[in-house]
Design a protein that fits this description.
- The protein is α/β, with parallel strands linked by helices.
- It has two domains: about 190 residues, Rossmann fold; about 70 residues, no CATH class.
- Helix content is about 40%, strand content about 25%.
- It contains ten helices and seven strands.
- A seven-stranded mixed sheet has the order 3-2-1-4-5-7-6.
- The protein starts with a helix and ends with a strand.
Amino acid sequence: MCGHACAARLGAMSSTDTFQLSLQTAETYEAAFVPSLFAHLAPHLVDAAGVTAGDRVLDVACGTGIVARTAAERAGPAGHVVGLDLNEAMLTVARRIRPDLDWRQGDAASLPFPDGSFDVALCQSGLMFVPDVAASVGEMARVVRPGGRVAAQVWSSLDRQTAIHPLADAVARFAGRDAVDLIGTYFRLGDREEFTGQFTRAGLRVSDVRTLPVTVRAPSVDDYITTEVESTPLVDRISEDVYRRIREEARAGLARYRDATGALVLPLEAYLVAAARG
């Protein structure tokens, strides 16, 4: 949905410290995808976690820091907000925008903070890229105080993303059903019962599961198809002819989502889970 920038989030969240995206990619992420997508989701996450004045807040896998910045507005001068990401380029951009906030390099599955360090721990559009989701949720639970809050936003399952179906169906037809998984990483935590269970198994009490309608925009249908295919492993698994067939069929199916200017406007669905530590 956000191309190389979201692929970069995968690297920013993984346990390997050998993946480092370029500063240019991080700047593109901030300039293009934060205002068009992530800035609209951040207030919902911060609201669900009940961030208030004076809170100590951790933004896990912060990217360029939109959730941390949003939380800082709520926490105010008496609060303290930390943004953590594994990727230094993301943090470089975050520091440029808000040098007054606390930016740290670290792994979502092994947070470098003592138990109970924060009132709130947040993660936006990130846990679906983490190799060990249970460990990451467990770490978020560990670093909040008793009574502290944990909230995370992910994407609903692919079967609920009807606007994605024209591309997914074309990939299945010409590259095989298994190939759909290569463009579906965003949606791998779409089973709400299973994902919510990660919170309860971490000792958290779930207080809210909330659906979030989202609009994803692209300059054109072809731009969208290019991004979704070429920012995933699918591009290395298919021939030029298969790619052409996928593009032609997906283009026809996605045409209904074009606006008057020819831009693509896709209605998608995210959700968030908010919980408290007992």
